[in-house]
From TrEMBL:
This is Co-chaperone YbbN. It comes from Streptomyces armeniacus. InterPro entries: Thioredoxin-like_sf, Thioredoxin_CS, Thioredoxin_domain, TPR-like_helical_dom_sf. GO terms for molecular function: protein-disulfide reductase activity. The keyword Disulfide bond applies. Residues 164-192 are annotated as: Disordered. It comes from the Bacteria. Residues 35-153 form the Thioredoxin domain. Belongs to the thioredoxin family. Pfam families: Thioredoxin, TPR_19, TPR_20. One of its GO terms (biological process) is response to stress. Keywords: Disulfide bond, Electron transport, Redox-active center, Transport. PROSITE patterns: THIOREDOXIN_1 (PS00194), THIOREDOXIN_2 (PS51352). GO terms for cellular component: cytoplasm.
Length: 326
């Protein structure tokens, strides 16, 4: 099975906005409790076997302190045998910046179904209790590293989760044979205006976040992070007061009503149904003309920003849109 990339920026839900602030507080409390107990080092088990009975304690609770990467596998799965050792080695190398939880799907069908796994190996992450797909299939190691780096960055910036403390560093790629560790590159200081926008989004101040991102873009029109943040904030602002059940009923009853279809597409995307959201708007573009068509087209481009231009689902939807327009 070919690996299927999952863009981190494509995982958006309303609960995550509230969860971000709560997770930061919980992570700080976890670290404070550990310090009070005198725990100077993190648990040595960076790779753990998890089942349905231990899932809440080992995955959900610990995801407030460290990103938990889940490897869904089975003994009979040959690609799983290729991917598993790579993930285990990287868990040691990353030294507590993420925890690897291995779940045997043959013995944990409930978890398999709850995550909506369609094939194995499948890799998910849980951060602050929020589940998100990473990739499916035995992906190349460089791709896995890039995905993990992005996961760690999002966990820290959005949720204040920095991982386990006191774990010895593993053998980094490209390290000297003598065992010398290359000095870590210093983190560049974050733009204060962008940091203010992120903080507003994390706090659930969607109007403030929208304005803050617009302020950044006024000075830096090409700022990719600000464009993504603005698209996410505007999406969340649009859906926060919607009655999802009512909108979906109206969308089913009024397939040609542009406003209703756009609201339903926003809800689809927030709920993680990316292909459904894109397909709904492409069909709306196909059925409409003039200003209505242009409005639907522009909304689809905004949702592309939320997911990320390099996501294969965006590439597919762009092609579908082009076929409808031309």
């Amino acid at each position: 099975m070919q690996p299927r990339n999952m863009s981190m920026s494509g995982v958006v839900d309303l609960a995550a906005v509230k969860a971000a602030g709560e997770a930061k507080q919980k992570a700080e409390q976890v670290r404070a409790d550990a310090a009070e107990r005198g725990d100077s080092a993190a648990p040595s088990g960076l790779v753990i076997n998890v089942d349905e009975a231990s899932f809440e304690a080992e995955v959900l609770q610990r995801s407030a302190e460290v990103p938990v990467v889940i490897d869904f596998w089975a003994e009979w799965c040959e690609p799983c045998k290729q991917l598993g050792p790579v993930l285990e080695r990287l868990a040691q190398e990353y030294a507590g910046r993420f925890l690897l939880a291995k779940i045997d799907v043959d013995h944990n069908q409930m978890l398999f179904q709850q995550f909506g796994v369609q094939g194995i190996p499948a890799v998910f992450a849980v951060v602050a209790g929020q589940a998100l797909p990473l990739f499916q299939g035995a992906a190349p190691e460089q791709q896995i590293r890039e995905t993990l780096d992005q996961l760690i960055q999002v966990s820290e910036q959005r949720f204040g989760i920095t991982g386990l403390q006191g774990v010895p560093e593993g053998d980094a790629e490209g390290a000297e044979a003598e065992g010398e560790e290359a000095p870590a590159a210093p983190e560049p200081p974050e733009d204060p205006a962008l940091a203010a926008a992120h903080s507003a989004l994390d706090a659930g101040d969607l109007n403030g976040a929208v304005q803050a991102y617009k302020n950044v873009l006024a000075d830096e029109p090409g700022n990719t992070e600000a464009r993504l943040g603005l698209a996410q904030a505007e999406l969340l602002a649009r859906v926060q007061d919607l009655d999802a059940q009512q909108v979906r009923k109206e969308a089913a009853d009024q397939p040609t009503a542009v406003d209703v279809q756009l609201k339903a597409a926003d809800l689809d995307l927030v709920g993680g149904h990316v292909e459904d959201a894109f397909g709904r708007i492409v069909e709306t573009v196909k059925r409409t003309a003039g200003d209505d068509r242009e409005r639907a087209r522009l909304r689809l481009l905004e949702l592309f920003e939320v997911i990320g231009a390099d996501d294969p689902r965006v590439v597919t939807a762009r092609s579908a849109l082009a076929r409808v327009l031309f």
